[in-house]
Input
Amino acid sequence: MDMRKFYNITHREHILCNPMSTEKLEQLIALLLLKPGARVLDIATGKGEFLIRLAERYRQISGTGVDLSPYFIADVRRNHQERVPDVRLQFLEMDGAKYVPEAPESFDLVACIGASWIYGGHRGTLKALQKMATPESWIVVGEPYWRQEPEQGYLDALGMKQSDFSTHYQNMEAGREFGLEALYTLVSNQDDWDRYEGLTWYAAETWASGNQDDPDIEAVLKKVRAEKAAYLRWGRETMGWAIYVFKKGAICTNL
Output
């Protein structure tokens, strides 16, 4: 099964392709205070909602969104033309890890919200993003964290190791290694998580009802139902999610 197709099916009902509320995202956008002419890069932009909303608030910016999914890129290009056609945005269908800007340290805000696997994890993401960010720029990442030690059954269900994620504190502190100071964080609550997961189940089941001749129907439902069982049995109490806001060039200390 093409995983790009799978995520397009399971995220049909989502505004954001992660367990964060739009209200909290708006809080973040209001804090970023982008100046006219600011350049924004959003790696693994998904449906591009973060970049589109930035453009709606800060009209005199330019931005680049990168995503591997042709479905999501088509969605965000359409949203761009419908919502902010006057803002200079471009969207590239490609592997975000292979994106190289024309010049290093050239973006005033660099984001990768929920796709740290592209760069081999949270630390790898921060290392890659800070190389593309101007001095005194914003770096915004979304990352899961362990709320408690995961049971082995949950790790087996996810196909993961405990070392694949860290704690919330460790995610915050990881930026110091790369000269980044954590200034703010938005943490998903239980309602945010349940909405995100529930919309995934709903989208898959309603898609299946309307596409009974699709050759991938069994694979989609099997995967979604297994993930639902793992979330309800272990995930609600075990895995957290947060968006971390770092500042490059902030005064860092050893405190």
Notes: The chain has a mean pLDDT of 96. The longest strand covers residues 133-146. Residues 217-238 form the longest helix (22 residues). The two ends are 49 Å apart (CA to CA).
